[in-house]
Amino acid sequence: MKVVIIGSGNVATILGRLMIQHNINIVQVMSRNMEHAKILAEELNSNFTDLNGLVDITADLYLLAISDAALTESLLYLNVNGKPILHTAGAVSKDVLKQISPNYGVFYPLQSLRKEMKIIPPIPIMIDASNVATMELIREMASKISDSVQIANDETRQKIHVAAVFANNFTNHLYSLAEVFCNKEGIDFNLLKPLILETANKVTEASPGTVQTGPAIRKDLITIEKNLNLLSEYPEMKSLYIKITDSIMNLYR
Ligand SMILES: NC(=O)c1ccc[n+]([C@@H]2O[C@H](COP(=O)([O-])OP(=O)(O)OC[C@H]3O[C@@H](n4cnc5c(N)ncnc54)[C@H](OP(=O)(O)O)[C@@H]3O)[C@@H](O)[C@H]2O)c1
User: Fold this and answer.
1) What is the average pLDDT score of the chain?
2) How far is the CA of 99 from the centre of ligand 1 (A)?
3) Is 16 close to ligand 1, i.e. is its CB under 6 Å away?
4) Is the pLDDT at 198 greater than 80, yes or no?
5) Are 135 and 171 in a shared domain?
6) Is pTM, for the whole model, over 0.85?
7) Is the domain of 72 the same as that of 183?
8) Parent domain of 103
9) Whether the CB of 142 sits within 6 Å of ligand 1
């Protein structure tokens, strides 16, 4: 299978690496910034161009791994000769691609991907397509690089994306706030790492609702009050503390 990757960021890089590991031939990397295209192309051993360049029309499939906002701009400059074109976004309809080719779809990697990651974690892939033949082609490629491939239409994928924002982006933001707090208060953030890992590990065995701990589920109002007093100089954290405490109490009411 021959693939053109459009984009050179986190997803383009990690999916590109996985593809060459599984003998999928990347024939071209295209990116808005020529230098970015060149860097990724050198790693993936492919040709490269910027978005004004000629698209390699020999490919079987075109993978658009560009920002969500760019996907909703006009992409009509891309001429893929009616071949399948896919995007990688969780929260963007597949139909943004319908004017480029009748054969289009989605290849959404349900994982937090950064090009700096040294070990590529397992990546469930949610796929969708405009027709059966394109779906089969996407499934074939997805199955080469992942053990977990599932069909998810626009509505389902959007819901999965919301769940992922809660489970991943929000928890990571809370880690960041905890780290800022630790640094300002002279506490070593590393002390919290076993706790963070333990909580993440627990959800692989139990429903998170059954393993919640902390002052909110205990309805320990004295401790909550003490914590809030400590946060008087951190208004953002204090307001989140109150909202999340209320949310936990409401869930276990
Ligand atoms: N990272 C993740 O964990 C993850 C997971 C699942 C899905 N996704 C989805 O995958 C897609 C790519 O995400 P990413 O994390 O790889 O983003 P990223 O690292 O920020 O890379 C964004 C890419 O988009 C290109 N780009 C930005 N604005 C553009 C424009 N106006 N026109 C053309 N190209 C433009 C950039 O090109 P230049 O660098 O050449 O300027 C760059 O190659 C997004 O739809 C995202 O929702 C991301």
Assistant:
1) 96
2) 20
3) no
4) yes
5) no
6) yes
7) no
8) 2-152
9) no
